[in-house]
Amino acid sequence: MIEIFGIPVAVLGGQILLGLINGSFYALLSLGLAIIFGMLNVINFAHGAFYMLGGFATWILFTYFGIGYWPGLLFAPFVAGSIGALMERLLLRRLYNVDHLYSLLFTFGAALALEGLFRHHFGSAGKPYPLPGELSGGYNLGFMFLPLYRAWVIIIALLVCFGTWFAIERTRLGAYLRAATENPSLVQAFGINVPLLLTLTYAFCVGLAGFTGALAAPIYQVSPGMGANLIIIVFAVVVIGGMGSILGTILTGLSLGVIEALTKVFFPTASAITVFIIMILVLMLRPTGLFGRER
Amino acid sequence: MGSEVKPVQLEVFDLHAWYGESHILHGMSLTVRRGEIVTLLGRNGAGKTTTMRAIMGILRKREGTIRYEGGDLIPLPPHKVARLGIGYVPEERGIFSSLTVEENLLLPPVIGPGGMTIEEIYDLFPNLAGRGRTPGTRLSGGEQQMLSIARILRTGANFILLDEPTEGLAPVIVDQIAASLRILKERGFTILLVEQNLHFASAIADRHYVVEQGCVVDEVANHALAENMDRLNSYLSV
């Protein structure tokens, strides 16, 4: 058995894989958070709740309707996005013109309400979700075993992240979004329905969170608290990456996932706080974030 | 150009407007006929830009009448006002730094027929040609002003609100912009122009309104400018 720094390669490989998976989740979730903050000036504490909604949507679809993983992957973001659109349209948008604190409190309250609702109906315990048949099993790479599902999660997460990057940086709709982030009233004066754009942006971003929840279901189980634990780390990821660039956010998420995983191997006791230590360092040395710009 | 009177395209009557508690417009009234270039002259703080924003619907707290081609503008959100055919070139130019020159140019959607093609726009403003991939705010002030006008011309809007296009620009650029506005007038555009540069305004406009403390205090036809110069200078002097 080959060892690197005293750790068997198989263990190292497995941890890096886990790190890439977590990193993919961080990337997907921080992307949505960063876009919502950039465009709507809302600190969306409800993001973890939409991740949880997506996980539950896919679990409910399977458990009560017998409909499997693949439709679930589409259903989850649809549910999260629809509820997000309603929430933005009816409630959140009333808070755009007042202190940011109110939208923060509102989304925090919404998260508590949603999680409480699901805890009441479904209990706190995690609910298992089966691996789809096509993605069970794996490959023996020689130095480690690569589960097929985990490889799939990383690939699809990267595809969605870069697809989002492309949509924002290279398309006309993305230009509307970037312009509306800078000067929403002027963009509206050009004939673009900016309020609708904001609703759709919020819906898309929380839909991304819901999609991530569906991806996570076979790995991490589905529970009402699944988002709350994750969202704190995702906030730290967004602070570390800054909100200057989409690619920066994605890269930061992936890297932090891997760094956290490696810390688990070499420094297990510190692994839970790795991201926060990095966040403190970044705030002290470069407060706008690694890829951030002055706002 | 015959002697028949062209139809009124924009009518503002007894318009009051507020920024929060501040009462800025006090019974603003003006008309603009199709194909005219009409200026709002006045000192800083007179309410000229506020009038533009009130027409466009960006400023929401208003009372009074704003009619465009007979329709009431006040109940409409800004994106619906734009879709009626009104183009807005703001005082700050509003070029987006996170967009390239080409993205800035193509940003305002086409809202009606008769807009200029990209080739025609580059003919009118040769400085913009070949700069498509440059970030918008890397252009000079004059080029940004041209871009700010150019992107409206593509949309099919035929009524343009143009707020202080020559502010801070070198005379040679000002002449270029005046020439382009004369071409627009020939093509039948209607322009409501805010200006403090009386020389520039007199070179292209048909009529001038003088705005002071949120309402119109005087109106002078361009051909009668010379004999009224002293009076106008007293309005505009600081």
Description:
The complex is a heterodimer of chains A (295) and B (238). Chain A has 295 residues and is mostly helical. Helices cover 72% and strands 3% of the residues of chain A. In chain A, strand 1 and strand 2 form a beta hairpin. In chain A, helix 1 packs parallel to helix 5 (148-170). The longest helix of chain A is centred in the first third of the chain and has 32 residues, at 9-40. Chain A is globular and about 65 Å long. With 238 residues, chain B is an alpha/beta fold. Chain B has eight helices and ten strands. Chain B has a six-stranded mixed sheet, with helices on both faces. The mean pLDDT of chain B is 92. Classes of the chains: A mainly alpha (295), B alpha/beta (238). At the A-B interface, helix 6 and helix 7 of A face helix 2 of B.
Q: Quick gist of this model?
A:
The complex is a heterodimer of chains A (295) and B (238). Helices cover 72% and strands 3% of the residues of chain A.
What layout of secondary structure does this protein have?
The complex is a heterodimer of chains A (295) and B (238).
Chain A: E1 3-4, E2 7-8, H1 9-40, H2 47-65, H3 69-90, H4 100-122, E3 138-140, E4 145-147, H5 148-170, H6 172-182, H7 184-189, H8 194-220, H9 226-241, H10 246-266, H11 274-285
Antiparallel strand pairs in A: 1-2, 3-4
Chain B: E1 8-19, E2 22-33, E3 37-41, H1 48-56, E4 62-68, E5 71-72, H2 78-83, E6 86-89, H3 101-106, H4 118-124, H5 141-153, E7 159-163, H6 171-186, E8 190-195, H7 198-204, E9 207-212, E10 215-221, H8 229-236
Structural class of chain B: alpha/beta
CATH architecture of chain A: Orthogonal Bundle
Number of discrete domains of chain A? 1
Strand order of the largest sheet of chain A: 1-2
What is the residue-averaged pLDDT of chain A? 92
Shape of chain A: globular
